[in-house]
Amino acid sequence: MATMLCSSSTARPAPLLRTSSLGFATSQLAGLTLRGLSTASTTAKLHPIVARRVCPFTDKKTNRANKVSFSNHKTKKQQFVNLQYKKLWWEEGKRFVKLRLSTKALKTIEKHGLDAVAKKAGIDLNKK
User: Domain 82-127 is in which class?
Assistant: First the structure.
């Protein structure tokens, strides 16, 4: 048993950190890449693409405001845009268009028409 302890103590693994000529610690694992994984696929898994809470027609965004208590203590809160999924009839294309838009944009579309509002916002309603 004593011989086993001696043999394990003599075979030490190499340290993972080395000091450079400037005195900074550098890792032996720096610059290594995993086989079969590209950086694009790993970043997509880590950071999924999420639809922002912005209306494409009116450019309404989330507002930062204060929540004020009875004791006048102010804490930050977010006021989100009232976004709705809506299927609207597009007369020029002779079909329904599914859109995610704010209720303010919906009122504007009812007043001026879908073509005019989309043209002013620079949105192409044709399928890609």
Answer: mainly beta
Please list the pLDDT of the chain residue by residue as tens digits (128 residues).
Answer: 555 555 555 666 666 556 656 555 555 655 555 565 555 555 556 666 677 899 999 999 999 999 999 999 999 999 999 999 999 999 999 999 999 999 999 999 999 999 999 999 999 998 74
Question: DSSP letters of 5-37?
Answer: HHHHHHSPPPPSEEE-TTS-EEETTTT---TT-
> 15: which 2 tokens?
């340290």
Domain boundaries, the chain: 82-127
